[in-house]
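Review session, final week

We close the course with one last complete record, chosen because it touches almost every idea we covered. It is Putative damage-inducible protein DinB, a protein from Edaphobacter aggregans with 164 residues. Go through it on your own first, then we will talk.
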Amino acid sequence: MNTPSLTAEDLLAWNDATAESWHALASEHPSLLQIPCDIHNSTTVGQLLQHIVAAELRYAERLSDAPATDYASIPFATADEIFATHRRALEILKNLFQNPEFDWNREIEFPTLTAGKRRATRKAVFQHALLHSIRHYAQLATLARQHGIRPAPSDYLLLASSPA
């Protein structure tokens, strides 16, 4: 049976395209980082972007059996600082793809900021890390528009299609 599926590579590409779009927007409109924001205990958009990239990096580190970077040490003063963390996370994840011995079905145990200690397959952690980012970027798009800053569309279909 032929079923539609979103591959890990597809998800990684969508996440990266979305992040790079937000990097460009925050670079063009640095005031975006100071807009008040109450999503996930943040007080500014910059802090929410820190949360997004921190989750990506810390989950990538856990997947690779490396110690997780201290959340508070992840910078968020500028767009370049924020998205350098995103690029670090993606490099770790891409390196895992290169290892044919990497067991995506192996369960790992990890602490979370909101749900205590959890256990899940590496595959589930990978998918969560990237979809978590997409979800928060969608929330930010509404907030940015309410403050007169118009983000580019980030729908998956726009990435996966071409003009007819």
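Two points worth writing down before the exam:
The chain has a mean pLDDT of 96.
The CA atoms of residues 41 and 109 lie 24 Å apart.
Good luck, everyone.
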